[in-house]
Amino acid sequence: MDRFKIWIIPGLVVMIALAGLLYFRGPLSEVEKPEEATIKVEIEKKKPKTFAKPVEPSPQKKAENDANAMVGALKSGDVSECAKITWNDELKKECEDNLIYDSIVKSGDVSQCDDIAGEILRIQCYDRIYMSSAIDQKDSEICAKITDAGLKQMCMDQIQMMLARYATSADDCSSITSELLRKQCEDNYYLKSSAKELNADGCSNISDQNVAAQCRSTIARNINAIQQSKIAAENASTVKTLTEILNLCDNLNESKAAMCKDSVYPQLAFDRKDISYCDKISDDLKSSECTKEQGDKINTYYLRQSLTLHDKDVCDRISDNELKTLCKNS
């Protein structure tokens, strides 16, 4: 009995110690957890490395990039540059349409307008080409194909103005709807035809009295120019005689020699078409008169030459600006 007591006391002490140890260390599963954590860490370290995805631009940056690409494409004129517009498909198509539009309008081929996707730009393509074609052909019927009402009216107006200016007969003016432009067309035609035929009676067909007066004045000048031309032709052989007379003047005394030369210089000025001979006249008044009179004769001579030879370059020799303009417009 005493021996049993001796053994039971140490046994209780051991059991109590084990129980305390278990209490403070926790369950066995918790003790094993660090090994599991270690295994997980080792597994994660074996995963392959990956690269981060590029950050997508903000909506504002996308719009800015596409806008810059659009500007660059339009400046270069190269439709392939539109491919740099990466975020906005509608803007890319608009870029392509604009560059295609310019080339089609320049070509004048209206059938190519169908290649433009945008309806508004496609219609503008048709209208622009119809406008150019109508003006080139002076055909108002082509203007009727234009969709835009304002552009259509502008087309009609321009053709009517062209007809009014370049009509070759009074009938050409009949298609002009504007009464004012039609009258101007008829007046311009009668002015040109009457002046060409030297027919003053034709001026009476002109409704604008100012234009009618200009018509008569033009015909009178042309007739005078022709008469002066005939006189000049008749006197063409007198240049040598005048030169001889001028030389003979030197044999006279000083005062008579001056009077002699003064009478020859005006004719020499006209015959040689050199107004500087008038400057040699000793009398200032006669010198001025010579300059004006012979200058007018020389100008009308060149006007006649232009009309006879149908050479507008001759008009540049006319010193009077108004008569020069008349010469070029005749």
In short:
The protein is built from 13 helices and no strands. It has helices spanning 2-25, 28-45, 59-76, 89-107, 119-137, 140-143, 149-166, 179-197, 209-234, 239-249, 254-271, 284-309, 321-329.
Describe this entry's structure for a reader.
- This protein is mainly alpha-helical.
- Among the domains are: 63-163, no CATH class; 235-329.
- The chain has 13 helices and no strands.
- The radius of gyration is 52 Å and the shape is elongated.
- 22% of the residues are buried.
- Residues 28-43 have low confidence and may be disordered.
Mean pLDDT, all residues:
79
Strand content: under 5%
Tell me the Rg in angstroms: 52 Å
Order of helices and strands: HHHHHHHHHHHHH
DSSP helix fraction: 55-70%
End-to-end Cα distance, whole Å, is 162 Å
Shape: elongated
Secondary structure: number of strands: 0
Main beta sheet, described?
none
Number of helices: 13
